[in-house]
Amino acid sequence: HHGIKQVLHDLGIEAHNAAWSTGLTWGGAQNGNTRTITSTTDGRTIGTVALATAEDYEQVVQKAQEAFKTWRLMPAPKRGEIVRQIGNKLREYKDSLGKLVSYEMGKILQEGLGEVQEMIDICDFAVGLSRQLHGFTMHSERPAHRMYEQYHPLGVVGIISAFNFPVAVWSWNAMLAAVCGDTCIWKPSEKTPLTAVAVQHIIRDVLRENELPEGIFNLIIGDAEIGAKMAADTRVPLVSATGSTRMGKKVGEVVGARLGRALLELGGNNAIILTEHADLGIAIPGIVFGAVGTAGQRCTTTRRLIIHESIFEDVKARLLKIYPNLPIGHPLQEGTLVGPLIDQDAVQSFTKALAAVQAEGGQLLIGGEILSGAGYETGTYVKPALVEARNEYHTVQEETFAPILYLIKYSGGVENAIDTQNGVRQGLSSSIFTVNMREAEAFLSHAGSDCGIANVNIGTSGAEIGGAFGGEKETGGGRESGSDAWRVYMRRQTNTINYSTQLPLAQGIKFDV
Ligand code: UN1
């Protein structure tokens, strides 16, 4: 069946998988606390994972700390060489891993493969970066003094990842952390631990071939308790967490209370603005991909469409032509564009949100049904919904992790659309479709979009790894992936060196003793 047995075999997934791995050693299956992982695509059991105990966690942190002592001393370009090898291994396993991502999480195969491609790309990025961990130099106000700054490895980085990008978001963090000289502990989503097990197998081969210490890359499978431990642990100077705003607030509070660093990548409520100058030929496919791709389970998914009143009916009609024909089905089936939601809870949030928005006055235009019958036995396949709504509805203000697109009308100038776009608590991704340069530049200006990502004539999702990824407000403020996101994984130090025979003081102070 779709060659999944072979894929699991290739990736070293066994029926029972241990709770933790310190790169070379696996363990922690003793306490009998396990979780069965079934695929949302067909309801079959893929494997069982053991859940880590507090002792397991302790062991992993110690290994990570120990490995840090040597890893930080390896020259950064040599660490880059290890990341290069990881990237090559991922190339070898791209097909298998992409398939497993698709099967365990439910995204379509092209998206599963695309996710692995993001991992490969961030490896390449990190390899180049390993020779570019630059600080500034500056001119001292004192004679015969030199000033510069440098970046040192930070320590153990905790990475909490979400089910929707079960491996790529880990790699954005882990590959940067690795070239920066940090070791990491990965707590994957409890919903998608098997892809993490597969990645850890791939990493283990590279560590072994290079005779590297255990504990550079660690995996720990457990519930929210493990995440809470990491957040509170002063031995983990940086905790990078991706997931809901609710989860992020908890992690952020606990990390903040010990003045640790938190890198938060949380909920979005992303909008596309369509002005009267939008090129609908490119806007419509951009909207549909953004709204129904990954079954609406990306943090960058398009959730709101802010449409100028002059084109509202036209846009609505075009979408209503496409939505009935969306191929919804098994994500590994060729031609499928929309796979299932991750689980029954997600289906419930979907139907609840649709009921709630209608109670507020929203008008369901199409979709919202749960599919049943052959191929849909899991009850997790839903028909993406279009709802005519108002931005101020409570339901529209929330991120529902499902394929619901709210159509919101605006009138007047682009500034009104921008106000609506910014009128939510989240601030991840945003787009405008217009060929009018005044509108486009207004959207990108200081008074424009308040999001971490703002695009013109492309959709809200599918960001490239080369840019810094993240958002403002309740999205958490963190930046991962490209640009200079690496800086958060290092500790910064300013150095002043005196090579004279005098001791002049700064600010002209005389202090003769
Ligand atoms: C996420 O959903 O957490 O921009 C990450 C995108 C992808 C990453 C999404 N490159 O849609």
TrEMBL record:
GO MF term set: aldehyde dehydrogenase (NAD+) activity
Tagged with keyword Oxidoreductase? yes
- Tell me which residues this entry annotates as catalytic: 265
Main EC class of this protein?
oxidoreductase
Coiled-coil boundaries? none
Looking at the record, the residues that make up the Aldehyde dehydrogenase domain are 33-494
Give the E.C. number(s): 1.2.1.3
**Top-level lineage group:** Bacteria
Per UniProt, the keywords (alphabetical) are: NAD, Oxidoreductase
Q: Which Gene3D superfamilies match?
A: Aldehyde Dehydrogenase, Chain A, domain 1, Aldehyde Dehydrogenase, Chain A, domain 2
InterPro entries xrefs: Ald_DH/histidinol_DH, Ald_DH_C, Ald_DH_CS_GLU, Ald_DH_N, Aldehyde_DH_dom, ALDH7A1-like
Give TM segment ranges: none
Into which family does the record put it? Answer: Belongs to the aldehyde dehydrogenase family.
Describe its assembly.
Homotetramer.
Q: What protein am I looking at? A: aldehyde dehydrogenase (NAD(+))
Q: What is the organism field in this record?
A: Hymenobacter swuensis DY53
